[in-house]
Amino acid sequence: VRPAICLSPAARSLFDEPLAIAVKGLGPRQQVTLRASLRDERDELFQACARYQAGDDGTLDLSRCPALPGGSFSGLESMGLLWALQPQKPFRRLVKRNVQSPFLLQLEVFEGHGDPPGRLLAEAQHERAFLRDGVRRVPVREGRIRATLFLPPGNGPFPGIIDLYGIGGGLPEYRACLLANYGFAVLALAYYSYEDLPKEMKEFHLEYFEEAVNYMLQHTQVKGPGIGLLGISKGGDLCVSMASFLKGITATALINASVANVGAVLRYKDITIPPLGSNIKRMKVNKSGIADITDLLNNPLEGPDRQSFIPLEKAECHFLFIVGQDDHNWKSEFFAIEGSKHLQAHGKEKPEIICYPGAGHYIEPPFFPMCAASMHLLVGKPVMWGGEPKAHCKAQIDAWQQIQAFFHKHLTGKPSGTSNKL
């Protein structure tokens, strides 16, 4: 009997779905090394490996068999080969640029625990897809809007969400389309450094975002009366500003967001909110040249920096704050707590705050490997994002469920348990 890798689902799964991995046909208690490899669209290689020992029957099931020390992870981690993937060149972060094609995951089983690994015993390939069958991807170029709308299969209308990413700019679609797989109409919205939008983060006009909100509210496939907002990092404080000044927002979910305006001037009609001040002297750079910018920003509760605090008490929506307690980009937990205090001081509903110990800044959909450090566009050097890989992975799985439940509750009026599973 030749060893073979058994996967379930066998050939293809959605990126945020668990994948069951087993190896059959090994010798009793045989020692092997498993390796997972994946190339992104820029041909950057990401790899993880783990050392295992087969059971008495020659079977190795990753959901029952702990990884031994010496690999990319150890312990009982059925999805470790995915969440522990690391770039072979430093400071690369795994992102999906074209959601219409899957990532190709290569799995290999080698003899023994040597380094380099022994003889190749078995291999398999598996597609990790982003679009469920039937999800429609609609490029949107209406008025000034530069966006992509994802519509779930079936007849709408569907609860609508606008999804905003951080200071990387461009138009990331992967979170929006993964969310659309669960029955939401999701608009991935670019706001700078994309097509004919401004190239740099100098100032943003809320009228642009208002156009996107109105586009969603008027769309025949979007169920009213209001929509949801989902934002991470800089996209998060833009969502706070949208919720505070624009009509038609029912629920706002924020991932490691600031409650002060950051990085660029924000204008709306005759209102101007300056960006929060910062002091480059508070940046620490370690021996490897990686910057820790946690303390860079000023306190938005003090002095002139108070003008940067977004008046979120004006918002007429429910708030959810997702917080990585090891975020090294900025003080996400402090921002969430101050936002909550501010809302309650103005007689508003207390927001939901979910804190994850050991989670860093980039809390992504499940099974994206944690990026410990990468280039920061504004700082001009690699910065550390924080996080401990195992805890960060667990946080991503839970946060994804919490975000969906929050939007189901406030945009459809029914808990997610009763929604029609696709």
From TrEMBL:
Coiled coil: none annotated. Residues 16-142 form the Acyl-CoA thioester hydrolase/bile acid-CoA amino acid N-acetyltransferase domain. This is ACOT1 thioesterase. InterPro entries: AB_hydrolase_fold, Acyl-CoA_thioEstase_long-chain, BAAT_C, Thio_Ohase/aa_AcTrfase, Thio_Ohase/BAAT_N. Belongs to the C/M/P thioester hydrolase family. Residues 205-412 form the BAAT/Acyl-CoA thioester hydrolase C-terminal domain. Keywords: Fatty acid metabolism, Lipid metabolism. The active site is at S233 (charge relay system), D327 (charge relay system), H361 (charge relay system). One of its GO terms (biological process) is fatty acid metabolic process. SUPFAM superfamilies: alpha/beta-Hydrolases. GO terms for molecular function: fatty acyl-CoA hydrolase activity. It comes from the Eukaryota. Gene3D superfamilies: Acyl-CoA thioester hydrolase/BAAT N-terminal domain, alpha/beta hydrolase.
